[in-house]
Amino acid sequence: MKKVLAVVMLLTFCLGSASAAAKYATIGAKFANIRTCGGEKCAVKWKAWKYTPLYMSAVSKDKKWVQVRDFAGHTGWVYYTMLSTQKGLSAIEDVNIRMEPAASSSIACTVSKGYSLKYLSTKNGWLEVEDEPENATDPVCKGWVTASYVWGPRAKGQSK
After folding, report:
1. Deepest of 56, 81, 121, 143, by most Cβ within 10 A of its Cβ?
2. Is 134 in contact with 116 (CB distance < 8 Å)?
3. 6: how many CB neighbours lie within 10 A of its CB?
C-alpha cells in the first residue's frame, strides 16, 4: 500500500508541477511492458528493465497508466505501479564503466546502448552506477561513468 501511495503522490506532483526533475521515474520491477495505449489489452511495444529512466508526459483518465518516453524518444504507456522514485540511467551508447571516477581508470565492465543502471552518487563530474544482472548468479557491475554517456535526471544537461 505504501508503494502505491508513493507512486500516486509522485504522479500527482510530477505531472502537476513545472519541475523537470520530478517528471522522471524509473521502472521499479524487474521489467515492465511499455504498451501502445493505456490498458492491458493494448499491444506491448517494448520491455523496459529495472532502473530504466522514463520521462512522464501524461496520465490516463483513470490515473492508472502513465505515458512515458525513453532515452531514444520512444513513447508508450506503463501501469503506474511499475514506476519507482529510485534514480536510474540508460546508456546512450556502448560504454565502459570505470573502477574509479577517472578516464584512465581500469574498466569494470562494458554495457550496451540502452542498458539500465542504478544511480548511486556523483563525484567530480562522474556518476557512480551499478547494474542488476538478469541472472542472480551473474556478477554485479559497479563503477563510474561520465554523464555524457548516459540519459536520465542525473545526466548532464538534465535536471538533477
Report:
1. 143
2. no
3. 14
